[in-house]
From TrEMBL:
Gene name for this UniProt entry: Tbc1d16
One Pfam match: RabGAP-TBC
Record's signal peptide: none
GO terms for MF: GTPase activator activity
Gene3D superfamilies: putative rabgap domain of human tbc1 domain family member 14 like domains, Ypt/Rab-GAP domain of gyp1p, domain 3
Organism lineage string: Eukaryota, Metazoa, Chordata, Craniata, Vertebrata
Stored SUPFAM superfamilies: Ypt/Rab-GAP domain of gyp1p (SSF47923)
A GO term from the CC aspect: early endosome
Native species: Tichodroma muraria
Superkingdom of origin organism: Eukaryota
InterPro entries the record matches: Rab-GAP-TBC_dom (IPR000195), Rab-GAP_TBC_sf (IPR035969)
Keywords: GTPase activation
Protein name in the entry: TBC16 protein
Length: 458
């Protein structure tokens, strides 16, 4: 048995009942009561005894253990700049713009969004910048001209779709439209914006997705894309603007809906390496499970749908904004994945869960995790990564695209070769293979000191 609180006020959480085979039954509490239940269990004799005094008792009367989990992030484990930025509201946003409407010091704006998020009232105005529809250097006039030009382009794309030959239409229906039609009517229907029968916003979402498949036939449409576009439309509102924001999302963010196998494999490679650095015990458990464990099926949905099915929309969108800010890394979503594992993965190790049980464990956590806590932890892990004196060459690309700000003092960590380069004899990143004997005059530093850096999590 264990009780796990997902918020600091002990009002939400879950009760897990597990047999020795770890077959979970989970009861969720949304409005309090779990803290009272945990008090009852603490007073219950069978729950507090962890071993049998009388060996004659039958096995079914034994209770192995009872625990209460309450995920917290002590202040010493947070990013030192946590709480340094308020949520970006109208006045703060206007402060970032000059008289011509250009964003001044784009890096400062991205940093503010990374730490504080964006007020709902101005998301529709700011998101197009983050999604590369508007450039930060553009003036208000240039943006208005761009919108008109892009609207014309959008309707040309739609016209192309509507003027297909009957054979092309049949093919398009089979490959794209059939799935889109099925998906849009069940996407975000609890959101007021898409609720009800014959909702025109659902039809707008459908048109955008169909037009996107014509615009980018290589990607076309795959399930999950409606999950990504729905919040964009609900905030940006204009059909053409939403379409071009979606184009930007699909082109410029590292995690995209249903990427090719090799794209996903690259993500998982980075994630495995980050876990090896930041949570070695969990990584060892994956290795012990063999190839199945290293496939990390439990986190595929996190990456494909950008955490949208794991957290309530308000928290998921904060995560999107933090990722879109591209502050210090283009791969912040992977640090969010690691944060989830660090905060909620201890049971996996303690109970030595198999691959399918691990999938069940993390699946059951969906919508019951503390999104703000996960975000704070992810920012803290990025900060710790930033402090590393050396990084393995396998994670070199996590720093490659982020431009200004990753190591803003001019310091770049040394690259250490992890020794897996089947296609070349030497390390393509110039990483040095660890040597066992220290050079004369050196302090004898050897290997990666990452275990020490991340030891604070315990």
């Amino acid at each position: 048995l264990h009780c796990s609180h997902s918020d600091e006020a002990c009002t939400c959480g879950q009760l897990v009942v597990a047999s020795r085979e770890s077959q979970y039954k989970i009861f969720h509490f949304h409005h309090g009561g779990l803290d009272k239940l945990s008090e009852v269990f603490q007073q219950w004799k069978y729950c507090t005894e962890t071993h049998l005094k009388d060996q004659q008792l039958a096995d079914e009367k034994t209770c192995m253990q009872f625990s209460i989990r309450h995920p917290k992030l002590p202040s010493e484990e947070t990013h030192p700049e946590e709480n340094s930025h308020r949520r970006l509201d109208v006045s703060a946003w206007l402060h970032h713009l000059n008289e011509a409407g250009q964003v001044e010091e784009e890096y400062k704006l991205r940093k503010a969004i990374f730490f504080g998020g964006i007020d709902i009232s101005i998301r529709g105005e700011v998101w197009p910048f983050l999604l590369h529809y508007y450039s930060y250097e553009s003036t208000s006039e240039e943006r208005e001209a761009l919108r008109l030009q892009k609207r014309k382009e959008y309707f040309e794309i739609q016209e192309k779709r509507l003027s297909m030959t009957p054979d092309e239409q049949k093919d398009f229906w089979r490959q794209v439209q059939f799935t889109v039609d099925k998906d849009v009517v069940r996407t975000d229907r609890s959101n007021q914006f898409f609720r009800g029968e014959d909702n025109p916003n659902v039809e707008t979402m459908r048109r955008i997705l169909l037009n996107y498949a014509v615009f980018n036939p290589t990607i076309g449409y795959s399930q999950g894309m409606s999950d990504l576009i729905a919040p964009l439309l609900a905030e940006v509102l204009d059909e053409s603007d939403t379409f071009w924001c979606f184009v930007g999302l699909m082109q410029n963010t590292i995690f995209i809906s249903s990427p090719r196998d090799e794209d996903m494999e690259k993500q998982l490679l980075y994630l495995r390496e980050l876990l090896r650095l930041m949570h070695p015990r969990f990584h060892q458990h994956l290795c012990a499970l063999g190839e199945d464990g290293l496939q990390m099926l439990f986190c595929h949905r996190w990456i494909l749908l950008c955490f949208k099915r794991e957290f309530p929309e308000a928290e998921a969108l904060r995560m999107w904004e933090a990722c879109w800010a591209h502050y210090q890394t283009d791969y912040f979503h992977l640090f969010i994945c690691v944060a989830i594992v660090v905060i909620y993965g201890d049971d996996v190790i303690e109970q030595q869960l198999a691959t399918d049980q691990m999938l069940l464990h993390f699946g059951n956590l969906a919508m019951h995790m503390n999104g703000e806590l996960v975000l704070r932890k992810a920012r803290s892990l990025l900060y710790q990564f930033h402090l590393l004196p050396r990084i393995p060459c396998s994670l070199h690309d996590l720093c490659k695209l982020c431009g200004t700000g990753m190591w803003d003092s001019g310091f770049i960590p040394a690259v250490e070769c992890s020794g897996h380069h089947p296609e070349s004899e030497s390390c393509p990143y110039g990483g040095l293979v660890e040597v066992s004997s220290p050079k004369p005059g050196s302090e004898g530093k050897k290997g990666l000191k990452t275990r020490d850096v991340f030891a604070f999590r315990k």
